[in-house]
Input
Amino acid sequence: MNSTQSPAQRALSSFVLLSSLLGASVAIAAPPACPTVAVYRPGVFSSEAHYEWRLSFTPSRKTAYWHISDDFLPTIPQGVIVTSTLGPKGWSRARTASFSGKYADNDAYVSPDGSTFLFSSMRPVDGVARKDFDLWMMRRTVDGWSEPMHLAGAVNSGKEELYPSMDRQGNLYFGSDRDGGFDVWRSRRQRDGSFAAPEKLGSGVNTKDFWEFNPEISPDGKTLLFVGLNRPDGIGWGDIYVSRLRDGEFTPARDLGPCVNTGKDDFHPTVLWRENKLVFVRNPDEPGKKSDFLITELRLPPE
Output
């Protein structure tokens, strides 16, 4: 500061400097801009011809599975699981998976180690037609996927079981309305490979008056993304939330915020955990437009 300045000039200079520093601190403290949200691989995973739902990859990221339908929540359940593979010339054109196409099949999911394929289906059980979706499983073999197996025991009920997800320990997460409205349930893997009776997750995830579904568990089982429907702490109709496992319980869920969630219906989260990317679906809710996969950087709110 110039020593020849008058007291008034020095005071003015100090005020200008202080204002500048405060302005700089405000700029530094401002939240970062939202990362780009873009349609994910248009023409391959995202198509204007169909609604796209729940995307999953093998661990190599060279094979993808998802399901498509012609309508949004059709009166008669529908869904076909399709697949695409990555080759020297890029991703192949989507084709119907070998095990799908005859019955309503949804919610394709490949386990973190690539050994298990889970999906929901209305296919018959022991020759008896079903009127609700159950969970089915396939094992990886030297010849590809095994024949689909209906999950035995208490996992499936007379209600809907949808959107399976699994951690590295083989613990199974899914959405079900077996207890009234939809909630997120977990069935722990037993030593013999079977699944224990499902348990509904606690109040950190599930609420009494609103629906929670579409669980996406991290491979280590410590981070759970899911969708809450029309919750009062949400932004839109369907919002994606996150809850962390701490001391054996899932913490109160946090909305992912306006960088992901909008006033529309945002749902079906898939996380590419190694790449720290979130893939999800947004219903455009506009005449003539169908949902696509969107991708963005995964930014989780602090605990």
Observations:
- Residues 214 and 275 are 21 Å apart (CA to CA).
- The two ends are 45 Å apart (CA to CA).
- The longest strand covers residues 238-246.
- The chain has a mean pLDDT of 91.
